[in-house]
Design a protein that fits this description.
The chain is built from 11 helices and 14 strands. It is of the alpha/beta class. It has 2 domains: about 120 residues, Alpha-Beta Complex (Quinone Oxidoreductase, Chain A, domain 1), CATH 3.90.180; about 140 residues, Rossmann fold (3-Layer(aba) Sandwich), CATH 3.40.50.720. Strands 11-10-9-12-13-14 form a 6-stranded parallel sheet, sandwiched between helices. The chain has a 5-stranded antiparallel sheet with strand order 7-3-5-6-8. Strand 12, helix 8 and strand 13 form a beta-alpha-beta unit. The chain is globular.
């Protein structure tokens, strides 16, 4: 079969090539998906560039990408919840990375039936962005009437997060540039902040939750605008919380002093989400898409 592979770390134009490789073999819990569409995310270009090689060790050449949609053509002996011919989508686990290919083997526990009212291409764009948004917001217990700021509302994660937060009954503030204001409003945001002409910290404050998709100073500044006991949920911060640090295998971890002081000052909750594949949550996304909530 043909696959797009990373041949070396470096500039994208010099580091990817279409190769002919063996079709993947199946474990008992795997399904073999004939790929109809795959999508690329920021993590993919960071992997190609070598920026994540300390965290994600690859044996090169390696097939690229994690998001996929397609049709099951084979299944392992222990797979009982899917059938050959099912149209599915997934964010594959790290050890099964490689969705820009004719076929991909995926653990059946992390896939879900594709939403019936969208194309394979649209379905393949959902897993990483949708799972990231859901997991980051659920880790801080988003609920009805929470006042939430979602940074970068026109991005993949941000645009999904706006709609999911509204589904949960939250009051949503979001930042975007002038050209995307109308579109982000159409997603359901209650207050769209054009960061080219407004200071978001003057508009959104005393918040229950800040969803930090940008990192850097935005992570630290979030503690200025949450209420006492508020929550900061990040996907871009440089420092994990203790739970995430353990999941990432970091031993004897301590929060950076500045971040720890900000958390203590506001009696705040801080979480850094490292998204995990999740078939059950993809099933939820399927139902939200079919209901046109997303």
């Amino acid at each position: 079969m043909k696959a797009l592979q990373i041949t070396q770390y470096g500039v994208i134009s010099e580091s990817l090539a279409i190769k002919t490789i063996a079709k993947p073999s199946l474990q008992d819990k795997d399904v073999l998906i004939a790929v109809k569409a795959a999508s690329l995310n920021p993590i993919d270009y960071k992997i190609v560039g070598g920026y994540l090689k300390e965290m994600i060790a690859l044996k090169l050449p390696a097939t690229i990408a994690y998001d996929v949609s397609g049709v099951i053509v084979e299944k392992g002996a222990a797979v009982s919840n899917f059938e050959i011919g099912d149209e599915v989508y997934a964010r594959v686990p790290q050890e099964q990375m490689g969705t820009v290919a004719e076929f991909v083997a995926v653990n059946s526990e992390v896939i879900a039936l594709k939403p019936t009212n969208i194309s394979f291409e649209e379905a393949s764009s959902l897993p990483l962005a949708g799972l990231t948004a859901i997991q980051a917001l659920e880790r801080v217990g988003i609920k009805k009437d929470d006042r939430v700021l979602i940074h970068a509302g026109s991005g993949g994660v941000g645009s999904f997060a706006i709609q999911y937060a509204k589904h949960k009954g939250a009051i949503v503030y979001t930042t975007t540039s002038a050209k995307n204001v109308d579109w982000v409003k159409a997603l359901g945001a209650d207050r769209v902040i054009d960061y080219t002409s407004e200071n978001y910290k003057e508009v959104a404050n005393n918040l229950d939750i800040v969803f930090d998709t940008l990192g850097g100073d935005y992570t630290l500044d979030a503690f200025e605008i949450i209420k006492e006991g508020g929550k900061v949920s990040s996907i871009a911060g440089s420092a994990p919380d203790e739970e995430t640090a353990q999941m990432m295998g970091m031993t004897n971890y301590q929060l950076p002093e500045q971040l720890a002081a900000l958390i203590q000052k506001k009696s705040a909750v801080y979480k850094l989400t490292w998204m995990q594949p999740n078939g059950e949550q993809l099933g939820l996304i399927k139902s939200l898409v079919e209901a046109e909530t997303i």
